[in-house]
Amino acid sequence: MPEARVIPIDGRESVPPRRSRRSARCTANASDGKRCREAVVADGLCDEHLAERLEAEAAAVAPEWERRLAGGLAFLRRRITGDYPVDDFGFDPELTESVFLASVRPLYEKYFRVEARGLDNIPAEGGALVVANHSGTVPLDAVMTQIAIHDHHPAHRHLRMLGADLVFRSPLIAPIARKTGGTLACNEDAERLLSSGELAGVWPEGFKGIGKPFSERYKLQRFGRGGFVSAAIRSGVPIVPCSIVGAEEIYPIIGNVKILARLFGFPYVPVTPTFPLLGPLGLLPLPSKWIIEFGEPIATNELDPAAADDPMLVFNLTDQVREVIQQSLYKLLLARRSVFF
Amino acid sequence: MSSRVVLVTGVSRYLGGRLAALLAAESGIERVIGVDVVPPRQDVGRTEFVRADIRNPIIAKVIASAKVDTVVHMSVIATPFGAGGRTAMKEINVIGTMQLLAACQKAPSLRKLIVKSTTAVYGASSRDPALFTEGMEPRSQFRSGYGKDSTEVEGYVRGLGRRRPDVDVTLLRFANFIGPRIDTPLTRYFSLPLVPRMFGFDPRVQFIHEDDGIEVLRRSVVEERRGTFNVAGAGVLLLSQAIRRAGRTSVQIPSPAVSAVGSVFRRAGLVDFSPEQMQFLQFGRGVDTTRLRTDFGYPPAFTTAGAFDDFVACRNLTKYVDPVRLEHLERRLLATAERRRSATIGGVHA
């Protein structure tokens, strides 16, 4: 049966509206695909289509900076009024992402040109413990590892770093460490982080590693007392060994002023080829090329949590992790063409 | 076993008075006896006030004659400010507690002892774990002050618990109290127009709202809650963040000048900064409240941030940095930007 034809009362359907010949036709296409037949107002477009285009422009072009302005202003307001969340450890994700990581990122990308490998060895969710070698006089390697994981891991996870108590005793450094996700390297904190599904990072060589002379570069020091292994076993999370190449060369330590170190209670006062010889210029790290490689995770969930109290097992596992990192360091060094490229 | 006759020490102080009034309104409790050296200023309902010093053996007679079955010990004081010096404070805290507990031990009617302690017993240092659980020991040594007194008080309380296993001992370690009415060194500190803090440090602080604190104390009296519990609102605030939330600005004082500034404030009677308080303002402290929420069964209604905001709102603290005006300014800036944009587009196409 044919459909009923609707005839509008004013009869416009059958008689198209007449327009003055001089007025141009709109260049846009109407919604039905046919050429729009309305008169041009500006830019070769009719009233309706001009408004449409302006709206599209408004949504696409101008608001880009306006959105950023709005975001920036809101960020400033939140910071000024203290309206941002921090977790129990004092971690401030907003500050970390918007200020801290953003300001160190050029160092990662342009200066050290860090290459992160094996990021898929880090689980996308759940607790895991990244264990890495420590070097470079200043713990830049920890910060670079944090950026590597945050920027290049598909889940963009935050690495919660476990630091020595000297970090939390030092003015200026202590609050930065806490706000960027650090906490004291003790079993209680490690277990609390790991069992709440966080990704924690530990540098078990501590000051022995970071402050060792240049002649001992890439030789792993003793791995503490293996506390990190027992924390991982108790929380049943995997250990991800991580080897960092390049950090050893940023500030080569050729001497240590022990008297000054003892006087100020520092673990070491380094002498490098440029510091203190060149004064403040000597604080500039050498632009070595870095590689951060994450190795295969070592599972601990098959072990009984009581195994954490078995010193022999803990020592063996600690040695195993240390050996894995040392071997992968040697492999990376063999493959490296030059320190700086 | 529910309490019939309750004795509250420190009844003339804010929290003691509020608890006594609340217990007096409880129908299951026959008598509430409030003990203090000065009469209570706030309304404590049908509480019977006994003017006595807990350092005096007379307290034993009060407990014995009234057949007290529950003692709530709340007169461990935090500052030497009102007590008349550190020596008097220590005397009241330690000797007072010893006398009170000696009387408790001799009282056959006693079934329950509730002690208001503090998270200051965990100290504050750079070697602290992020959150202290009830079983952890302090990582720093106390020289003197509230933390040391409280540690000693807790020691005596544990001693009584061993000697009188029939007595249920509840030890409540409260974080810093905050709220609309309570007056503590910290509430005075946050009311300063320019808040001093330690240069280069930004400690984590935790608060317990006064209403939550009172409710925890009330529940320990009327219900069975044996054990040691940390009492704090969920979450933490950074000190700088708290100061910003109060609409204040802070000034960072380098550590060599801190003790000098502290003594000026002390002498001016503004805020009492004990060395211990200084350590707290340097390293901060966090406690784990899992046991309070699960075993005790009371999740505080106010989070740390919520309690602090309630304090700021109810005190009518002048906000030198006003968030409302700031938001207004933000909207105006955005509106200006939008107007300029539409003006440019209009100009192009006009």
The 3D shape of chain A can be described as elongated
Q: Which percent band covers the strand fraction of chain B?
A: 15-25%
Query: What kind of assembly state do the chains in view correspond to?
Result: heterodimer
Helical element count of chain B?
A: 13
Cα-based radius of gyration of chain A, to the nearest Å: 31 Å
- Kindly state the number of beta strands of chain B: 13
Distance between the termini of chain B: 85 Å
Q: Name the average pLDDT of chain B.
A: 90
What series of H and E elements makes up the topology of chain B? EHEEHEHHEHEEHEEEHEEHEHHHHH
Which stretches of chain B are low in confidence, meaning pLDDT under 50 for 5 or more residues running? none
Largest interface, counted with CB-CB under 8 A? A-B, 43 and 43 residues
* Average of pLDDT of chain A: 88
Strand content of chain A: 5-15%
Radius of gyration of chain B: 23 Å
Q: How far apart lie the N and C ends of chain A?
A: 80 Å
User: How would you spell out the order of helices and strands of chain A?
Assistant: EEHHHEEHEHHEHEHHEEHEEH
Number of helices of chain A: 11
Strand order of the largest sheet of chain B: 3-2-1-4-5-6-11
Structural class of chain B: alpha/beta
Strand tally of chain A = 11
